[in-house]
Amino acid sequence: MISLDTRLTTAAAFKALYDTTGWGPPERDTDYYARALAGSWFSVSAYAGDELVGFARVISDGHLHAFITEMIVAPAFQAQCLGSQLLDAALAACHAASITDVQLFCARGKQGFYEKHGFLPRPQDGPGMQLVTGV
Question: Looking at beta carbons, which pairs linking 62-67 to residues 24 or more positions away fall under 8 Å?
Answer without folding.
Answer: 62/97, 62/99, 63/97, 63/98, 63/99, 64/99, 64/101, 65/99, 65/101, 65/103, 66/41, 66/94, 66/97, 66/99, 66/101, 66/102, 66/103, 67/102, 67/103, 67/104
